[in-house]
Amino acid sequence: MILQDTIVALATPSGAGAIAVIRVSGPKAIEIVAPLFQSIKGKDLTKQKSHTLHLGHLVEDTKVYDQVLISLFKGTNSYTGEPTVEISCHGSTFIQQQIIQLLLRKGCRMATPGEFTMRSFLNGKMDLSQAEAVSDLIASDNEASHQIAMQQMRGGFSNEIAKLREELLNFASLIELELDFSEEDVEFADRTAFRELVNRIEFVLKRLIDSFAVGNVIKNGIPVAIVGEPNVGKSTLLNALLNEERAIVSDIAGTTRDTIEDELVINGIGFRFIDTAGIRETKDVVESIGIQKTFEKIEQAQVVLYLFESLKFKEQSSDYIIEIERIKNKYPQKPLVVVINKIDLLSETEIQNIKLQLETLNVKLQTISAKNKIGVEELKNALLNFVDTGALRNNETIITNTRHYDSLLKALEEIEKVKWGLDGNLSADLMAIDIRQALYYFGEITGQVTNDELLGNIFANFCIGK
Ligand code: GDP
Ligand code: ZN
């Protein structure tokens, strides 16, 4: 089927760079490129060894397209597991397109998104979760998500799953063997050893499932809501954190009606900041919509920064303390940092007074001046303390992929059934069904069980050329 085709695509980003790489993969890759290539040493490409580089020109009839460097991968020793030629040409988009069109005329087909990686999977070069990690790796824009994708690509996660699957498969065969001898009362599968395995699988599955909470947040950035009345300095703080002038700063109260989102990487962890309107009582329709939005954003956020202006806080502290308590009661589980901004407007004693007043509330407190960048670094550290990076530091496997998460949940469900079966001395034939089902979900993750629709969905998220 599709593997019969020889595919071509630009592997480097579209646009002009110093060089561009055009990838050709498939049974006829070398056959198609060789007649177009004039080596400066007069070599015939088809007679060269695999994993070699060749300098020359791409020529059709008398037309010289470009001087190029060819990387040759013969047999199955390539990324895709099939003959591959990578053409490094000069980076102009004109040259890139001319060469790709030439190759299309000579019998290549344009690659679909992710098709190179899909071939790699279909040719057994990597399993499905590794292939998925390739796209995560390309998308990762911070240290933490890069680390997770890299680990997944190197097969840490799938090896763990594949090993458990293998062990479970052994028991499945033994139990099914018992079915063949159902007349006699034999037990080939040692129930004690089997229970030990099931417990171990349950433990691993639960750990992987739990890791998704961390993994998902790291992959997408940790959402932080910056909440506060108009003019307390939310946008200024966001700018100070981002070190750029991106959010809108103004002196008119109520400017930040629409929420602004921005991303920032602190110590390798991505944060997604959401600048929201405050929650003061209001009759203004637009603003009350804003308040509703604020609550929504707090719900979605992992951490809430609740900003106050120092002068106003001094004057209306009892009102504000009620407000803080209201948020605390509404979202008791949500990590909350109370931030008193504009401390440059108060004396040291006045600041100490505010600190004393807030002590009884038992909330994390940071006093800052966003405008003068005082206390901003401490605030960053406070944010980092809210993130559970333990799993990252310990290099444990972390799940970031919703598809894996779903399969793991289903596998766990089946494993629990097997456990009940063991407890209740369920007959071997019924237990075998649950084990088979668990095996199916394990296989879904690594790709031992697969179908065209699943593959289509996964690789459609890739870019062309990968
Ligand atoms: P937002 O409505 O909460 O987003 O508030 P802005 O960030 O737009 O700031 C409102 C005003 O407060 C602007 O004029 C800022 O320059 C000012 N401001 C922000 N931070 C500080 C600070 O630390 N000290 C002082 N004195 N003014 C500040
Ligand atoms: Zn603002």
Concise structural overview:
This protein has helices at 29-33, 93-105, 115-122, 128-139, 143-153, 156-180, 191-220, 234-242, 285-300, 310-315, 317-330, 348-359, 376-385, 390-393, 402-423, 428-446, 452-460, and strands at 7-10, 19-25, 37-39, 52-60, 63-73, 84-90, 109-110, 222-227, 260-266, 269-275, 303-309, 336-341, 364-367. It has 466 residues and is of the alpha/beta class.
Description:
- The protein has a domain at about 1-125: Probable tRNA modification gtpase trme, domain 1 (Gyrase A, domain 2, 2-Layer Sandwich).
- The strands form two sheets. Strands 3-4-5-6-2-1-7 form a seven-stranded mixed β-sheet. It has a six-stranded mixed β-sheet with strand order 9-10-8-11-12-13, sandwiched between helices.
- It has helices spanning about 30-35, 95-105, 115-120, 130-140, 145-155, 155-180, 190-220, 235-240, 285-300, 310-315, 315-330, 350-360, 375-385, 390-395, 400-425, 430-445, 450-460; strands spanning about 5-10, 20-25, 35-40, 50-60, 65-75, 85-90, 110, 220-225, 260-265, 270-275, 305-310, 335-340, 365.
- It has 17 helices and 13 strands.
- The longest helix has 30 residues, at about 190-220.
- The protein is flat and about 85 Å long.
- Helix content is about 50%, strand content about 15%.
- Helix 4 runs antiparallel to helix 5 (about 145-155), helix 6 runs antiparallel to helix 16 (about 430-445) and helix 7 packs antiparallel against helix 15.
- With about 475 residues, it is α/β, with parallel strands linked by helices.
- The structure holds guanosine-5'-diphosphate and zinc ion (ZN).
